[in-house]
Write a structure and sequence with these properties.
This protein is α/β, with parallel strands linked by helices and 152 residues long. The protein contains 6 helices and 6 strands, in the order βαααββαβαβαβ. The chain has a 6-stranded mixed β-sheet with strand order 5-4-2-3-1-6. The two termini are 21 Å apart.
Length: 152
């Protein structure tokens, strides 16, 4: 199962504030290796500034369903408002991995930086197939996808 959350970013808040909001969303009592998320602040703020999470999710796999976090930018962020529903589980309470999108031009320094301080956070090329998604999507069509942001 996958759960989606959309957060408003630039211009509603800075990329750094967006990352802090993501960390607050995915951590709580019992979270493991929270320092890795905090140590990645500069790198992830750069990725958020480049607007990669607008079309490619930041994904967390660990306890509970896979969490996909997207960011909204510009007028869309302003129009949507800032409310984000809290999670009903703590995805970082056990063994977890985060997968973040990055452009090919910056992927090597991002990988290098994250490997030193945040080995639970992996990076993938935003224009190529999402390896994390391919590795976790069930081959049967019985998977459940919950998208709380559907409008109808």
């Amino acid at each position: 199962m996958r759960i989606r959350r959309d957060l408003n970013s630039i211009p509603c808040q800075t990329a750094g504030e967006t990352w802090q909001q993501i960390v607050a969303l995915v951590t709580g009592p019992g979270s493991r290796d929270v320092q890795q998320l905090r140590s990645a602040s500069g790198v992830l703020a750069s990725i958020i500034t480049d607007e990669h999470p607008s079309s490619r999710a930041i994904m967390i796999e660990g306890v509970g369903p896979q969490l996909r976090i997207y960011c909204r930018y510009g007028m869309k962020a302003i129009e949507e408002g800032g409310k984000v529903d809290p999670l009903t589980w703590n995805p970082t309470a056990g063994d977890w991995r985060m997968h973040v999108p990055c452009d090919a031009e910056n992927i090597e320094w991002v990988k290098s930086s994250l490997a030193q301080t945040s080995p639970r956070i992996k990076v993938f090329d935003a224009v190529e197939a999402d390896r994390a998604e391919e590795d976790t999507v069930p081959t049967k069509s019985s998977g459940v996808v919950v998208d709380w942001n559907l409008r109808g």
